[in-house]
């Protein structure tokens, strides 16, 4: 038990622990509430004091700032009045200077006008002299141009004539290479070409018309050649077909392959060759020597310009073959491995094919180059004709040159010439 003394009656009374704790709590809560209220009151008072102090400070600061602004306004007014006064003085001085310059400019203007008049008069006189000089130069230029153009035109005409002659010559050359000779049959042409070389290139060869028709048909020509021992080196059955022949009109080359192959076999010839002018636009036959052995054994088709080359190629191949045969016999007699011979045969075949291809391409290249040259000469001729036309136009323009056209669209020159004409009229 706890004993508590009343503060009013000073009597003591006892309370248990729970009651004591409750009384103690009430005392503490009262004290805490009283202390809290005191603290809040003090904080509120301090807040009001701080606001009053801040208001007083702000009021003082604004008053100071207003005082400073008033001082600046007064100073700016004073400076503005001073600057205005200085500017007025400066403008007065400038006006006086401008008046003096205007008076001097009037004097300079009068002098300049006088000098300009004198200068224009001098230019007018010089221009008049230049016009007369230009007229004389124009006459000389027209005469010189006319003489030069006449000479150039004559030169152009001579060049054109020479180019035309070259074109004609090349066309004739191409014609001789690709078509029959005028006034000759194709057979006569081939026979003549062969006979030109018979004595030098084919001294032991036989080349004659096939007149044996016992089997029912015959070719045109047979070529045979043998060695000194009488062994036949090569034999060729030739057939010539010309577009002009009535019998072959509108026919194709392949229409004659079967009959030519039959003639070759019946006359025991190794090769068959069709010399033809048929199908002139067929590039297959125009590229050189055309091999048709895939259809008929050992048969070729050529244009007339390849008549001698095909004989030469086949003859050389046959002679090389004869040499190879002789070597083969020698090899067999000496029991040498046949492999070397087969390699040589293969090499020969490859070489022959290569030579054939080269020869074919070279002949075609020659024809193409002639075509290109002719085309180039035609273009040169056209360019020269165009040049002649331009020279004629230039001469017309030179003759049409006048003072009126020179001054067209040029007001300054028109005014100068007008003044010049007026002066000449006054002088007159």
Please tell me what the overall shape is: flat
Main β-sheet, in a few words? Answer: 6 strands, mixed
Strand order of the largest sheet: 3-4-5-6-8-7
Rg calc: 64 Å
Instruction: Give the end-to-end Cα distance, rounded to a whole number of Å.
Output: 162 Å
- Could you tell me the number of beta strands? 8
Q: Describe the oligomeric state of these chains in a short phrase.
A: single chain
Low-confidence stretches: 177-183
Estimated share of beta-strand residues: 5-15%
SSE series: EEHHEEEHEHEEHHHH
Q: Kindly state the percentage of residues in helix.
A: over 70%
Characterize the structure shown.
The protein is flat. It contains eight helices and eight strands. The longest helix is centred in the N-terminal third of the chain and has 162 residues, at 17-178. Strand 1 and strand 2 form a beta hairpin. By secondary structure, the chain is of the alpha/beta class. The strands form two sheets. Strands 3-4-5-6-8-7 form a six-stranded mixed β-sheet, sandwiched between helices. It starts with a strand and ends with a helix.
Concise summary:
By secondary structure, this protein is α/β, with parallel strands linked by helices. The protein has eight helices and eight strands; from the N terminus they run E-E-H-H-E-E-E-H-E-H-E-E-H-H-H-H.
Please supply descriptive tags for the structure shown above.
six-stranded mixed beta sheet, two-stranded antiparallel ribbon, 428 residues, alpha/beta
Task: Summarize the helices and strands and which ones pair or pack.
Layout lengths: L1 E4 L6 E4 L1 H162 L7 H16 L3 E5 L11 E6 L5 E10 L15 H10 L4 E6 L6 H4 L3 E2 L7 E4 L4 H27 L5 H61 L3 H4 L4 H17 L1
Parallel strand pairs: 5-6, 6-8
Antiparallel strand pairs: 1-2, 3-4, 4-5, 7-8
């Amino acid at each position: 038990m706890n004993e508590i003394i009343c503060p009013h009656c000073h009597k003591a009374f006892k309370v248990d622990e729970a009651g004591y704790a409750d009384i103690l709590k009430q005392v503490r809560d009262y004290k805490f509430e009283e202390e809290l209220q005191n603290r809040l009151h003090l904080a509120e008072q301090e807040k009001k004091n701080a606001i009053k102090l801040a208001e007083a400070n702000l009021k003082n600061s604004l008053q100071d700032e207003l005082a400073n602004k008033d001082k600046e306004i007064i100073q700016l007014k004073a400076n503005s009045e001073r600057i205005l006064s200085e500017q007025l003085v400066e403008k007065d001085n400038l006006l006086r200077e401008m008046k003096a310059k205007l008076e001097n400019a009037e004097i300079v203007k009068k002098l300049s006008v006088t000098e300009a008049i004198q200068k224009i008069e001098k230019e007018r006189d010089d221009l008049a002299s230049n016009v007369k000089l230009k007229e004389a130069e124009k006459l000389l230029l027209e005469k010189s141009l006319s003489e030069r153009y006449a000479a150039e035109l004559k030169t152009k005409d001579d060049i054109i004539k020479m180019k035309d002659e070259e074109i004609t010559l090349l066309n004739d050359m191409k014609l001789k290479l690709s078509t029959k000779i005028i006034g000759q049959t194709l057979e006569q042409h081939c026979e003549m070409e062969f006979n030109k070389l018979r004595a030098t290139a084919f001294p032991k060869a036989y080349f004659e018309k096939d007149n044996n028709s016992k089997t029912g048909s015959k070719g045109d020509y047979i070529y045979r050649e043998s060695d000194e021992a009488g062994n036949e080196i090569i034999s060729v059955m030739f057939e010539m077909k010309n577009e002009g022949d009535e019998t072959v009109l509108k026919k194709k080359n392949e229409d004659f392959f079967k009959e030519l192959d039959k003639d070759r076999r019946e006359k025991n010839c190794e090769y068959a060759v069709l010399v033809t002018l048929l199908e002139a636009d067929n590039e297959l036959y125009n590229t050189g020597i055309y091999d048709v052995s895939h259809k008929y054994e050992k048969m070729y088709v050529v244009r007339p310009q390849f008549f001698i080359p095909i004989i030469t190629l086949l003859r050389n191949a046959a002679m090389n073959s004869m040499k190879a045969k002789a070597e083969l016999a020698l090899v067999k007699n000496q029991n040498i491995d046949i492999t070397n011979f087969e390699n040589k045969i293969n090499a020969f075949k490859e070489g022959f094919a290569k030579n054939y291809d080269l020869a074919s391409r070279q002949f075609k290249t020659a024809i193409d180059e002639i075509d290109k040259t002719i085309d180039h000469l035609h273009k040169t001729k056209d360019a020269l004709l165009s040049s002649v036309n331009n020279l004629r136009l230039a001469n017309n323009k030179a003759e049409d040159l006048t003072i009126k056209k020179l001054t067209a669209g040029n007001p300054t020159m028109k005014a100068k010439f007008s003044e010049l004409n007026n002066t000449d009229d006054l002088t007159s």
